[in-house]
Write a structure and sequence with these properties.
By secondary structure, the chain is mainly alpha-helical. The protein has two domains: 141 residues, no CATH class; 111 residues, no CATH class. The strands form two sheets. It has a two-stranded antiparallel ribbon. Helix 1 packs across helix 3, helix 2 packs parallel to helix 4 and helix 5 runs antiparallel to helix 6. Keywords: Membrane, Transmembrane, Transmembrane helix.
Length: 254
């Protein structure tokens, strides 16, 4: 593990320290949550910032391992800089809204809350489109420093993650993530996914982590040929799409 972290730091110090910063925030907010017992929609209001902090840390640690195979140095620098800005902005917005006792997402009550929510949307959509552009650039990379299986896993992992990141637009347009019930209904422990209605966050979460899951399938399975990677990615895409369809029907998964 130490070797992996050293490698990530060598490839992109900026993303490495951004990840460490969010891991520190993750621990700090876990401590704060023990003393601040205010709730939003039935859960501690620090639960969402805590989950976003660990998610952003993983996101920042993942990209250097993918970008090392992309040859466009100037493009990579711009992407790293914008990613650090976008992730830091999202974290700042979510944490400060929690401190104010306000929802960060789907909150249009008042000019300030609406401004925060809409600005978060603009930043994260820009980040997603930039990531999608990076994913498309990987189609110009040859399988020289990496196997065809890993190259296809990176291509499809990035594109799939971007598709289901943009699924957030469906939730934003509805100003809710639950279908068939109000947000805040009884949910799965930790994730808080609804147990009585459809929840669009499930497909969103699983789709976003295609960025890690598909390359990890190749690494741990040891496959070299592109076909198993493409088949795995296709099955994964269909499964996550069915999760989205199930949620849109208002059906709980659990």
């Amino acid at each position: 593990m130490k070797t992996l972290f050293v490698r990530i730091k060598t490839i992109s110090p900026l993303l490495y320290y951004c990840a460490l910063g969010h891991l520190a925030l993750f621990i700090l907010m876990l401590i704060i949550a023990q003393f601040d017992h205010r709730q939003l929609m039935g859960i501690n209001l620090w639960t969402k910032p805590i989950k976003f902090a660990i998610s952003i840390a993983i996101y920042c640690l993942t990209w250097p391992l993918l970008l090392q195979y992309l040859p466009y140095e100037q493009l990579k620098r711009r992407f790293v800089n914008f990613t650090v800005f976008a992730m830091s902005f999202e974290m700042l917005a979510i944490a400060t809204q929690a401190a104010r006792g306000q929802l960060s997402h789907y909150n249009t009550s008042g000019a300030y809350n609406a401004l925060v929510f809409s600005t978060m949307g603009i930043v994260i959509v820009s980040q997603t489109l930039f990531a999608l552009y990076i994913g498309i650039k990987f189609f110009k990379v040859k399988a020289v420093k990496l196997t065809p299986a890993l190259l296809w896993a990176i291509r499809l992992g990035i594109i799939m993650a971007c598709i289901f990141a943009l699924e957030g637009g469906v939730m934003a347009s509805r100003l809710a993530h639950t279908v068939g019930a109000a947000d805040g209904s009884p949910g799965l422990p930790l994730f808080n996914w609804s147990r009585i209605a459809g929840d669009l966050r499930i497909a969103h979460f699983m789709g976003l982590h295609a960025l890690q899951i598909i390359p990890l399938f190749v690494v741990f399975s040891g496959v070299k040929n592109s076909r198993p990677a493409v088949i795995f990615a296709s099955v994964y895409f269909i499964a996550v799409s069915l999760l989205f369809y199930n949620a849109m029907l208002g059906r709980p998964l659990f």
